[in-house]
Amino acid sequence: MVDIDEYSVHDLNAIMKGFRYGVPPVIYYHFLVPNRDFHFGLCPLGNDEDIVKFSQYISEHKVMKVYTEHGETRLLTYFLNPKPVTKVTLVQLDEAHEDVQHNDEAPDD
Q1: I need a labelling partner for 59 at 20 to 30 A (CA). Which of 1, 15, 52, 90 fits?
Q2: Cα 22 from Cα 16, distance rounded (Å)
Q3: DSSP conformation letters of 64-108
Q4: Sign of the C-alpha dihedral, residues 39, 42, 46, 50?
Q5: What angle do CA 48, 60, 76 make, to 5 degrees?
Q6: Rounded to whole angstroms, how far apart are CA atoms 83 and 50?
């Protein structure tokens, strides 16, 4: 049993070490969303935001399935940024032009 309010990804590592079967250096954790297919219901458990998502299912489903992959993962969403960047502006600076105008500044007339 674990207290989900105080649970973190590091606790998963401690649990795996408790199994004593030789923990590899890299383990990827995933949980299966209840009532979802294995191929489309796996979600990553790689950071504390993932644990928060995981905890949303705990109140209704007391037992959750957690899966591991050792060494590498095939779950494509594992490395996605949990907070997608909405806008990025790339600007190439000319070395001769020290006077840089930002997008949010009005041009001088």
Answers
A1: 15
A2: 9
A3: --EEEEES----GGGGS-SS--------PPPTT---PPPTTSPPP
A4: positive
A5: 45
A6: 11
pLDDT digits (tens, 9 = 90+) for 15-47: 778 877 666 678 888 899 999 998 888 998 888
pTM over 0.70: no
Whole-number Å distance between alpha carbons of 26 and 75: 14
CB atoms within 10 A of CB 50: 19
- At position 95, the amino acid (one-letter code) is E
CA distance 95 to 73: 43
* DSSP, residue by residue, 30-69: EEEPTTS-HHHHEEE--SHHHHHHHHHHHTT-S---EEEE
